[in-house]
Amino acid sequence: MADKVDLEYINCELCGEKNSKNLFSFPPFHYVQCENCNLVYLNPRPNCDFINRLYRDCQYDYLDSDIKKDITVEKELYFFRFSDRLKEIGTFKKKGRILDVGCAWGYFLFLAKKDGWDIYGTELSLVEAQYAQREFSLNVFRGSLKDAKFPSRFFDVITLWHVLEHIPHPLEEMSEIKRILKEGGLLAIETPKITRLQDDAREHGSIFSTLIHLFYYNNETLNLLMEKAGFKIVRIRECGDSEAIKKIANLRINFIKDFIIKYFRYLKWIKRFFQWIRGILKMHKNIIVYAQPLQ
After folding, report:
1. Single pTM value for the model
2. Number of domains present in the structure of the chain
């Protein structure tokens, strides 16, 4: 794989400096940390054309033959997590026009639509965009946010659920988000913490298995990103996902896995208990940020 990848070397996308220290390697790739602002990023990295091809060419052979199939095998887990995110968004905004950038299979937008939101999505992956359109009848643009050319001051809420770490030029993306977000609008971002870097490496064994995490953020670098992009953070906290239940669901013992997935909605209190324990022990591996544009 590596010898077929078009590589580019970059300076820090957040502060522009080139001095960095190596943290972790997948030769010829290296995760480095900026000596100036502490942003962790992949350097060298595949160039933007290669990344776009990677998303475009990602295929699932059984999609056309069985559109009702749960592609991720984790639909209930995502529904549970996104229901919580919608409730938290509701503490800031009461309905309106919402955009999910990198909406993937459309699970979040499906729930938002049921909840009364006017929904829009963008997605680079053709397969995932088609699934969201066909399975849930969602309004999804297949392509980048910039290519969608939404009107200025159009959205009440814009969300990026585990998308920011994949975006090659985060400040440019934030600039476009600010342009299309209404005055007083809300930006919601969830992204993995730096502490997940080695865990992801051990679990996946390749930067291509989850497509590509180009960045790992922490509170400090997220604050700097928001400041440079013209946003003020109104809430930032660590959070978990479906990690504990997902590990159980990934067991090779099929009847246990099937039971977990099928009855996950009834096991949600077990998940909440795990989340509570992990919070106390400061073991959460994601960060969620809510921010509003400065005028």
Report:
1. 0.85
2. 1
